[in-house]
Design a protein that fits this description.
mainly beta, Lipocalin, 10-stranded antiparallel β-barrel, 2 helices, 10 strands, globular
Length: 175
């Protein structure tokens, strides 16, 4: 009976994954990452989605343009996937505090909440993901970490019902 219980605990840990990253761990890291500064103007990225079994499922590039419009920061993203599919997302982001943000997009359920510390920003949101002939709601734990003035690394973990589906990796490059 104990072996069976231990098996399920280990299985749950494996399936849900864990994140040991905490914003406070980045507090002293430089350069300070402010999304409204880094993403202002044009930025490009390349990325991929790896499922929980380690298989690369999709590769893509992203062309982005950030526009400051009063208190609103607009981030237009155009994704081009390896199968030729193109997708557009428009983020509308507002600062809610010195180090906090909220954002929305037509494919986000509710509001995305973001917080920054040092060279990192962490977002939490639910994405309306196109899946087969419908929409699947998936939760994102989205980390952006600034390496230097031109480069940002992004790792987002996707979960459904608490089970890790996989991870999205992006590498942003500022010209």
């Amino acid at each position: 009976m104990i072996k069976k219980g231990l098996f399920f605990v280990i299985l749950a840990f494996f399936l849900t994954g864990c994140s040991n990253m905490k914003l406070e761990d980045f507090a002293e890291k430089k350069p300070e990452f402010k999304i409204e500064e880094y993403f202002l103007g044009k930025t490009s990225a390349s990325g991929l989605f790896i499922d929980r079994f380690g298989k690369v499922k999709r590769q893509f590039t992203v062309d982005m343009e950030g526009i400051q419009d009063g208190d609103l920061f607009i981030l237009n993203e155009t994704f081009l996937y390896d199968n030729g599919e193109e997708e557009f997302r428009r983020w509308e982001i507002t600062k809610t505090g010195e180090k906090t943000y909220q954002g929305n997009s037509s494919d986000i359920k509710g509001i995305a909440l973001g917080e920054r510390s040092g060279n990192a920003v962490n977002w939490h949101y639910t994405l309306k993901l196109k899946y087969k002939d419908g929409i699947m709601l998936v939760k994102f734990d989205d980390w952006l970490i600034m390496q230097d003035e031109k480069n940002v690394f992004n790792k987002a973990t996707m979960k459904k019902f608490g089970v890790r589906l996989g991870d999205v990796y992006l590498f942003f490059k500022k010209d």
